[in-house]
Amino acid sequence: IKKIRTRFGGNFSYNKSYQFINSEENTNESLVRGMNASVGTNFTKAPNVTLRYRITYVDQSNSARPSDIKTVTHAPSIDFDAYIWNSVTLTSDFTFNEVRQGGSKQSSFNIWNAKLAYRKDRDAKWEYELVGNNLLATGSQVDISQSIIAFTVNERFILPRFVSLRVRYQL
């Protein structure tokens, strides 16, 4: 039992604000609920895996609009870490994120990173790493949100696929 870790969590927020636009009252309401869970292993010799899942519900209403906006975000992820042959370490992580509004997909992206490291033994000064970031070549991540004043669409550009060889010396 000590080798398995679990975690559950959640959040809740409610916001209601009033404003006047051209002498007309405008009411904005936002209700956010989120849940997350993870389960993972904590072995010293066997590979370790951690699975996570996060879901967020956002309901937004504005008295100036005829319909409410309902957004659901799904975000599963997995981390893997293994120490192999007493000299090689393999780590990898994958994250998927999907945003839906009104049942239709608005945006999604996924990121995969991996690292293979070699060190002759635990006391060796030299370490060699082959590191790959954004191996699926995801170009950008889009976030859609609403505030009191406006709808916003934020697009964050992600660095392109990048593979590097690193040599490390420990003093």
Rough shape? Answer: elongated
- Kindly report the average pLDDT value: 90
**What is the spatial order of strands in the main beta sheet?**
1-2-3-4-5-6-7-10
State Rg. 22 Å
The run of helices and strands is EEEEEEEEEE
Find the structural class using helix and strand composition: mainly beta
Structure summary:
The protein is mostly beta strands.
Keywords summarizing the entry:
mainly beta; single chain; 10 strands; two-stranded antiparallel ribbon; 171 residues
Written description of the protein model:
This protein is mainly beta. It has one domain (4-169). 0% of the residues lie in helices and 74% in strands. It has no helices and 10 strands. The chain has strands at residues 4-21, 24-41, 48-62, 69-84, 88-101, 104-118, 126-133, 140-146, 151-157, 162-169. The strands form 2 sheets. Strands 1-2-3-4-5-6-7-10 form an 8-stranded antiparallel sheet, with no helix packed on it. Strands 8-9 form a two-stranded antiparallel sheet. Strand 6 and strand 7 (126-133) form a beta hairpin.
